[in-house]
Amino acid sequence: MAAKKKAEKEKPLEKMTAKEMREIAKAISGITGVHGMNKEELLTAIKMERGIADDKPGKKKSGEVRQLKQKIKALKVQRQAALEASDKKMATIYRRRISRLKKKTHSAS
Q1: Residue partners of 86: CB distance under 8 A and separation at least 6
Q2: Do 49 and 28 contact (CB within 8 A), yes or no?
Q3: What DSSP string runs through 15-79?
Q4: Residue 56 has pLDDT above 70, yes or no
Q5: Alpha-carbon gap, residue 54 to 88, rounded angstroms
Q6: Global pTM value
Q7: pLDDT digits (tens, 9 = 90+) for 10-35
Q8: CA–CA separation, 64 vs 108, rounded Å?
């Protein structure tokens, strides 16, 4: 019965702290990596699992920045391999791709 009252009095997700949202997200089996997420990522994941439509569809998501940074990291490894193989042309191509992705991360945040 105590859990029922708690569910009834649950405040809106937007008003919760990240710590409170992590507790909710841990209880949902479809969400993984809860401790590595920030508040916006938690909010998006919880809403998606609960089937709640996003109020602000035009807003950029911080998960997008995380994906871009992963791509940058992979390109840096490829660029380093090209430099070690003395392939200056490919190293230049990778450098330009990295630069382009960095610009996208700045505009997304």
Answers
A1: none
A2: yes
A3: GS-HHHHHHHHHH-TT---GGG--HHHHHHHHHHHHTPPPS-TTSPPHHHHHHHHHHHHHHHHHH
A4: no
A5: 45
A6: 0.46
A7: 778 888 888 888 888 888 888 888 88
A8: 8
